[in-house]
Design a protein that fits this description.
With 185 residues, this protein is of the alpha/beta class. The protein is 39% helix and 24% strand. Strands 3-2-1-4-5-7-6 form a 7-stranded mixed beta sheet, with helices on both faces. Strand 1, helix 2 and strand 2 form a beta-alpha-beta unit. Helix 1 runs parallel beside helix 2. The longest helix is centred in the last third of the chain and has 15 residues. The chain is globular and about 50 Å long.
């Protein structure tokens, strides 16, 4: 639900090292990762922020405004996959340097199929929570029932990403796991 501070700092440094200017965030919640991204981007940087829950986003909006970075954010209230489909229809040319995904875990793989078309070659797609409390390494019967759907989806995503020749993958064990996918082609 919320990015831990050390993960936020890590992503901020990554964005700065990449010289990212145009990013996408799928799943905003109260906006902590959105704020850290906005602070990391240059003054003319921009973020397309997508979340179905505008009320949660508005909870953190005051902090974003106080930090002086609200002008960098284009918030879209929408289902994530529908918003990505619309972005692909409007501009099928890859334009994003970086995408951060932290919503709708069962649809991470579907989001990846869209994001690979939206992120530039050399750009990065980051999936949050890919270790899922360590449950991706546990036998299914030891995992609480309410955690199994997301566990299965994340395990399938991890396998899919590991075998995709279009990307280079790194699993970072920060927070609850972040999988970084650098687009190669």
């Amino acid at each position: 639900m919320e990015v831990p501070v050390d993960e936020g700092h890590f992503l901020s440094m990554l964005l700065k090292m990449m010289n990212a200017k145009n990013t996408l965030e799928l799943g905003v919640f109260t906006g902590y990762s959105l704020l850290t991204t906005a602070l990391a981007l240059p003054e003319d940087g921009r973020i397309t922020a997508i979340d179905i829950d505008k009320e949660a986003y508005e909870m953190g909006l005051e902090f974003i405004k106080n930090a002086g970075v609200s002008h960098k954010i284009n918030f879209i209230q929408s289902d994530g996959l529908q918003a990505l489909d619309k972005l692909l229809t409007e501009n099928p040319k890859p334009e994003f340097d970086f995408a951060f995904v932290d919503a709708d875990k069962p649809n991470y793989a579907n989001a990846f199929h869209r994001l690979i078309k939206l992120v530039k070659v050399g750009g990065v797609i980051a999936f949050d929570n890919t270790l899922w409390f360590g449950f991706v390494a546990e036998e299914e019967e030891t995992v609480p029932v309410h955690m199994r759907v997301n566990r299965k989806a994340l395990m399938e995503l991890n396998k899919q990403l590991a075998s995709d020749p279009r990307i280079e993958v790194s699993q970072v064990s920060i927070g609850d796991g972040v999988t970084l996918c650098r687009r190669l082609v």
